[in-house]
Amino acid sequence: MRDTMGIIVANNDKIPPITDIRAISALPIAGSYRIIDFVLSNMANAGITNVGLITEANYSSLMDHVKSGSPWDLDRNNQGLNIVPPNLDALDYGKSRGNLDMLAGARSFMNKSNQTYVILSLGNAVYNIDFEDVVEKHIENQSDITVVYKDMTGAEESDLSRFTLINLDENNRVVDIEAKPQYPNSSYASLEIYVMEKALLEGIIDEGISRGDHDFIKDSLSKKLQGMIITGYKFDGYCDIIDSLKSYFENNMVFLDKEHRAELFNLENPVYTKNKDLSPTVYGHDAVAENSLVSNGCVIEGTVINSIISRGVVIKKGAVVKNSIIMQDSVIGENVNLDYVVFDKEVTIDKDKTLIGQRSYPVPIAKGAKV
Q1: What is the CA radius of gyration of the chain?
Q2: Which residue stretches of the chain have pLDDT < 70?
Q3: For residues 255 and 292, is the Cβ–Cβ distance under 8 A?
Q4: What is the pTM of this model?
Q5: Which own/partner contact pairs does 218-223 have at CB distance under 8 Å and 24+ positions apart?
Q6: Closest of 24, 23, 5 to residue 240, by C-alpha
Q7: Using CA atoms, how far apart are residues 353 and 366, in angstroms rounded to an integer?
Q8: Fewer Cβ within 10 Å of end Cβ, the chain: N or C?
Q9: 23-66 tens-digit pLDDT
């Protein structure tokens, strides 16, 4: 798919305190990966060799992770992975007023690219999608814009309200768009993946900015329903957008399920990440590990159950970690009891402490905290 480029929008939505120093796209997931790895890998697996990553704020961790794009074969002299810094002219107190402003900052990058088609996606989603098939269907249907969506029939209203929802007619044409409605009228959730010709996207951006618009969905796409052919592409696999502490926790726990893990880490469409060479994890004589993902470089002397453990974590004797996410280089003291917690990097909790949250709201601890 050398005639298709990719644009990833890494916006600055907040999940405090774990996004105080980083974008959601840079959050660890499944122990050794970052959220951005999924969309980048999907693009790489589709043969896309020109990708623009649009940043907004707190992007140093994201840039450190992706760097030249080597893990995704995007470290190229010509095109490859391009980090697009914030559009300073569009910032309002350090934050952009909408994703249309962020896209405007990438106009120069798009103008220099020679591909015909573009895949536009957010950088905060978990899925393994065949982007090549999406583009092929887009061309076959002669669509102006294709929207990738998930049928969430049966989901609660509160869950549907997290998404941009679309309505389709009998010809699979989008006839209505609702951006995170309080009272949903559809169960078709957009995954915020859009395929179109690059020239069309450039025109939409220029028109929107000239009119003082800021939101790609509310201000631009919803106004094109009558004049353009906007069609849906249904994706039936596992997919979700991470936009809250609850969704971050749940999407980590998904990887403890064998079937979901096999689907998301599909060997035919592998997920790549930045490699860190660490020694294997050491398990003590009394260590217990059940239904958990434990990364390299850890020392496990206590008990780990239904948890995600990142690199370099130390869990001392007598400690019990259940239903939790522990990020890199954290230290869990002796006889500590943790249940439904999310520890950022380099957290230290002294011995004999207890922290218990709930699945609907796990207890988050900021980076470097001492408890």
Answers
A1: 21
A2: 86-97
A3: no
A4: 0.93
A5: 218/179, 219/98, 219/100, 220/100, 221/145, 221/177, 221/194, 222/177, 222/179
A6: 24
A7: 17
A8: C
A9: 999 999 999 999 999 999 999 999 999 999 998 777 888 999 99
Q: Which helix or strand (DSSP H or E) is residue 252 part of?
A: helix 245-253
The rounded distance, in Å, linking the Cα atoms of 242 and 13 is 10
221 secondary structure, DSSP code: G
Which two three-digit tokens encode residue 37? Answer: 């790895």
* Structure confidence at residue 269 (pLDDT): 94
- Quick check: 342 and 362 in contact, CB under 8 A? yes
CA distance 46 to 32: 23
Q: Do residues 149 and 193 lie in contact, with contact meaning Cβ atoms separated by under 8 Å?
A: no
d(CA 85, CA 67): 13
Tell me if 167 sits within 8 A of 174, measured CB to CB: yes
Secondary structure of 223-246 in HEC code, one letter for each residue: HHCCCCCEEEEECCCCEEECCCHH
Measured on CA atoms in the order 298, 300, 306, 307, is the torsion positive or negative? Answer: negative
Segment holding 139, helix H or strand E = helix 131-140
Backbone φ, ψ for residue 287 (5° rounding): -70, 145
Total residues belonging to the chain: 371
User: What tokens appear for 8 in the block?
Assistant: 């990833």
- Encode 113-135: b = buried (16+ Cβ within 10 Å), e = exposed: bebebbbbbbbbbbbbbbbbebb
Note the Cα 144 to chain centre separation in Å: 26
> For residues 355 and 103, what is the distance between their CA atoms, to the nearest angstrom?
42
Dihedral of the alpha carbons of 166, 44, 201, 172, in degrees to the nearest 10? -30
Number of H helices, E strands in the chain: 9, 30
Helix (H, G, I), strand (E, B) or coil at 205: helix
3-state secondary structure 326-348: ECCCCEECCCCEEECEEECCCCE
Domains of the chain and CATH, by start? 4-264 (3.90.550.10), 282-365 (2.160.10.10)
Residue 331 burial (CB count, 10 A)? 20
